From TrEMBL:
Its EC number is 1.14.13.149. The gene is paaB. This is 1,2-phenylacetyl-CoA epoxidase subunit B. GO terms for molecular function: phenylacetyl-CoA 1,2-epoxidase activity. It comes from the Bacteria. NCBIfam families: PA_CoA_Oxy2 (TIGR02157). The keyword Oxidoreductase applies. It holds the Pfam family PaaB. Keywords: Oxidoreductase. The keyword Translocase does not apply. Residues 1-28 are annotated as: Disordered.
């Protein structure tokens, strides 16, 4: 088997020559948007970021996330979010970004008396 191969996306050797592409039917995998995947392990727990994947649309991303990240019935809920729709703070901006909360001591529960009957607080 001769031809060009690439290990795109960590999925092993993918042929890049002599492969039927459907000329214009769908965008190439490189043009597919990146999705971030979040899975909730059990009811009542938070969704946790488990990885990323490329998909042509939201529905394909959801199905691929199910197949890749919940193979052993680990989850009860999956969220997929286009990575370009996420706005996040930078770890380098930690001090200036979160500094305003430090001088608002009334937001911290240090001024309240907690009864002994209240567990886990």
């Amino acid at each position: 088997m001769s031809g060009e191969f690439t290990a795109e996306g960590g999925h092993g050797a993918v042929p890049t020559e002599g492969v039927e592409t459907g000329q214009g039917a769908k965008p190439s995998r490189r043009a597919w948007p990146l999705y971030e995947v979040f899975v909730r392990g059990k009811r009542g727990l938070n969704h946790v970021h488990v990885g990323s994947l490329h998909a042509a649309d939201d529905e394909m991303a959801l199905h691929n996330a199910r197949d890749v990240y919940t193979r052993r019935n680990e989850g009860v809920s999956i969220w997929v979010v286009r990575a370009d729709a996420i706005t996040a703070s930078s770890p380098a901006e930690k001090d200036p970004f979160f500094a305003p909360a430090g001088d608002k001591v009334y937001r911290h529960p240090t001024f309240y008396a907690i009864p002994e009957e209240v567990p886990h607080l």
